[in-house]
Each structure stands twice: as structure tokens, then as C-alpha cells.
Amino acid sequence: MDRLTVTGGLTIEGWQSWILAALVVWLSTAVATLLLPLVFLREAMDNRGEAAHPNS
Questions:
Q1: What is the pTM of this model?
Q2: What is the pLDDT of residue 26?
Q3: Which helix (H) or strand (E) holds 4?
Q4: pLDDT tens column, 4-43
């Protein structure tokens, strides 16, 4: 059995769909792993700069 049906009507059928779904999940995780730390580091650096110069 190579078919999965979710209650909302989403159907994943065939080995190509399974491979594509795994690649999409992997790629989105890889992009988030690279980009999210940059966002949080930028915010931390901005907050650190404000703490060093509170009158600015």
C-alpha cells in the first residue's frame, strides 16, 4: 500500500510523491536552519546596541 489519505482530502499516492514530499520537508527545514538564527542574532545585536546606548 503506497497511498495515504488525510481526513481533509489530501492524498499522497505513488513513490514520486513520497520522495517529493520528503524533499520539500528537508529543504524547508534546511532553509529555516540557516535563516532563523540570522534573524534572532540581528534582533539580539539590535537589543544589545540599545542597552549600551540608552539615551540614543
A1: 0.58
A2: 97
A3: strand 3-5
A4: 766 677 777 888 988 998 999 999 999 999 999 988 888 8
Residue 26 is classified by DSSP as: H
What's the confidence (pLDDT) of residue 56?
53
* CA atoms within 13 A of residue 26's CA, in its CB half-sphere: 6
**Three-state DSSP string of 10-22:** CEEECHHHHHHHH
Provide the 10 A C-beta neighbour count for residue 6: 8
Q: What is the dihedral of CA 13, 16, 20, 21, to 10 degrees?
A: 20
| Residue partners of 2: CB distance under 8 A and separation at least 6 | 13, 14, 15, 18
Asked if residue 12 lies in contact with residue 28, where contact means CB atoms within 8 angstroms, the answer is no
